[in-house]
Amino acid sequence: MPSDIASTPKLAHLVSLRNLGGVERYFSRFYTGYGQHLDLDILLQTNDIHPFIRPSLVDAKPRIHSIKGPGNWKFPEIMGLREAYQRTLVRRLDPDAIVVWNKLAGNPIPLLTGRPVFHYEHGTSWTAQDPASVASYLQHVQGVIAVSRAAERMLQIRWNVSSEVPSIVLHNAIELPSRQSEHPDGRFRLGFAGRLKGLKAPMVALETFRSVQARVPHAELWIAGQGPLEPTLREWTKRWKLEKYVKFCGLVDDMSKFYTQLDAFICPSWREPFGLVAQEAIAYGLPTVVNNVDGLPEAIIDESCGAIVEPRRPREALRCYGEACIEGPEEVYSPSRDDLVSANVIDPEEAATHLVAWANSAELRREIGHRAREKLASQQNLQRYGDQLMAFIRRHL
């Protein structure tokens, strides 16, 4: 619950909840744990709400409004009918400000005109492709809420958002799970989770595990997720005679059960505006290896919670496994250089060095896991997140 609800501004949140990505999941979590105590309205970019998200918004139904028309109606965009509806809607709701959740291009400008606008950046600065639409929208933005320092810098570097525009970095808040990995002696189970596609670099995870298993014969790799690279991963698992040690878990319904059965985690992606799976992994007490790219190092807070590996290896090195392994963005944000650079991947031998050290000491893994959970509980909890968000908006209205 907000700590200072009496002075909290009324907000309208412009968001799409049709899919089940990180933004949609996070908005649902924010509303359930914090936002439902506020005077707010939800403005749907698209009328559909994903079935997995809908239950968390049951009590919000009177507060949910389509920006395309009342109820299930959709006003056509011709003759200014939809624009007129949007202007009427925002006048009726009369919010103090509008928060736009992770959309730079294609926003309904009539809806945003005449009200303070705050942009929540969770990755669209990496993917937006319509400079004119982005520029039109950014003229209305009064403040930026960024999921990571990397996200803040991407807006500034790629989209020329002035550093004088007020901004705040608020990492995803997470509820600390009651369960965690127990790290039993004599077991070392490495985990990877994500869509099995190029930019997530699952082949790097498999390469790294191959190096680990050569030195830790009882080591295992569990892979959660599906995607176009699954046949490639299975082929090389077989070529490297690792079938006994690699488990393909497919789509996992209960990620809590998945995380608690692991002993360490690897997230070698070469693009992640934040890296929710890495944050979730340390929340379950798992020492985690991440690529030092975009917002990934921020997801594990610092190296006391895992290992941050500099990507020194050309992405082209993965071409030997197939063209699909190098599909993805060619430029990423480098925290080390504070600039856009060519996308590289981590060296499996360097990543394996950290994992072998953890494999050889269950006590070390428990120590790292305990420290990570303590930091998450104090630094990335939902109450702190919500209070800081509302204070930022109140300060810049």
Structural features:
397 residues, alpha/beta, Rossmann fold, 2 domains, 7-stranded parallel sheet, 6-stranded parallel sheet, 14 helices, 20% strand
Notes on the protein architecture:
The chain is an alpha/beta fold and 397 residues long. The protein has two domains: 184 residues, Glycogen Phosphorylase B (Rossmann fold, 3-Layer(aba) Sandwich); 191 residues, 3-Layer(aba) Sandwich (Rossmann fold), CATH 3.40.50. 35% of the residues lie in helices and 20% in strands. The protein has 14 helices and 17 strands. The protein has a seven-stranded parallel beta sheet with strand order 3-2-1-4-5-6-7, with helices on both faces. Strands 10-9-8-11-12-13 form a six-stranded parallel beta sheet, with helices on both faces. Strands 14-17 form a two-stranded antiparallel sheet. Strand 4, helix 3 and strand 5 form a beta-alpha-beta unit. Helix 7 crosses helix 12. The model has no long low-confidence stretch (mean pLDDT 94).
Describe the protein's topology.
Layout (H helix, E strand, L loop, with lengths): L10 E7 L4 H12 L6 E10 L14 E3 L14 H13 L3 E5 L7 H4 L4 E5 L2 H4 L3 H8 L2 E6 L2 H11 L7 E3 L19 E5 L8 H14 L4 E5 L5 H10 L6 E5 L4 H6 L3 E4 L8 H8 L4 E4 L4 H4 L6 E4 L3 E2 L16 E4 L4 E4 L1 E2 L2 H12 L2 H18 L2 H14 L2
Helix pairs in contact: 7-12
